[in-house]
Each structure stands twice: as structure tokens, then as C-alpha cells.
Design a protein that fits this description.
By secondary structure, the chain is of the alpha+beta class. The protein folds into 2 domains: 55 residues, no CATH class; 45 residues. Helices cover 36% and strands 30% of the residues. The strands form 2 sheets. Strands 1-2-3 form a 3-stranded antiparallel beta sheet, with no helix packed on it. Strand 4 and strand 5 form a beta hairpin. The longest helix is centred in the C-terminal third of the chain and has 23 residues. It is globular and about 40 Å long.
Length: 112
């Protein structure tokens, strides 16, 4: 049996074109109603155009330290997704190694 799930984003855009706020809600989330966030990255593969389309938004309220951590966690998540989708553990490990180097350069991770 299949089901349809939805995810909706509500973006309040300021005069400068930058989001003032980003809220989201999802039919299968662990909470009801909208929840705010300060950054949103969506990457979509279009088979017809053989191209990736991206929506990358962030609010001016997002501290750079949190943006750095968001990127770090996104890279790690991409490594996991890549490994799951392709089975290529060696390439996923390259992405994880890059993530760790990124984290160390930005003092997210301790040098060990």
C-alpha cells in the first residue's frame, strides 16, 4: 500500500529578497503544525534535463557559526545518503573525510 506525504515551506521574504523567516510543516513529522528554521537546502535531480536544481535559503538571523555547523552536518548526511544509494563505501568515506577536514578548519571539531 502506498501513501502520499507532504512537506510545505512558508518563506517570508523581505524587501532585499532575503528570507525574514522560514517555517515548515510535514504530514509525517513528529510534531503538529509549523516549525521555524533558519536555513533550508533542497537539491532536486531532474532526469529530463539531466541536471540538479537547488533551493538554498537562509535568514539573516542565522549566526555564521551555526551555518558552518549546518554545512558540516549536511556533508555528513550526504555521505550517508550516497553510501546508501550507491553502495560505494570508499567514496562515502572520502566525503566523510572532507567533512572532518571542513569541521577542523572551522573549529567545529577538535584537532586530534
Amino acid at each position: 500500500m502506498t501513501r502520499e506525504a507532504t512537506m510545505t515551506f512558508h518563506i517570508n521574504v523581505g524587501e532585499s529578497g532575503m528570507p525574514n523567516s522560514i517555517d515548515w510543516e510535514a504530514s509525517e513529522s513528529s510534531f503538529r503544525g509549523r516549525r521555524g528554521c533558519d536555513a533550508l537546502f533542497i537539491s532536486m535531480w531532474d532526469r529530463l534535463d539531466f541536471n540538479t536544481y537547488n533551493v538554498n535559503l537562509y535568514t539573516g538571523k542565522l549566526p555564521k557559526s551555526e551555518m558552518n555547523f549546518h554545512f558540516f552536518k549536511t556533508f555528513l548526511s550526504l555521505a550517508d545518503t550516497y553510501e546508501s544509494a550507491t553502495g560505494k563505501k570508499d567514496i562515502a568515506e572520502m566525503i566523510r573525510n572532507f567533512s572532518e577536514e571542513f569541521g577542523r578548519k572551522l573549529d567545529i571539531l577538535d584537532d586530534e
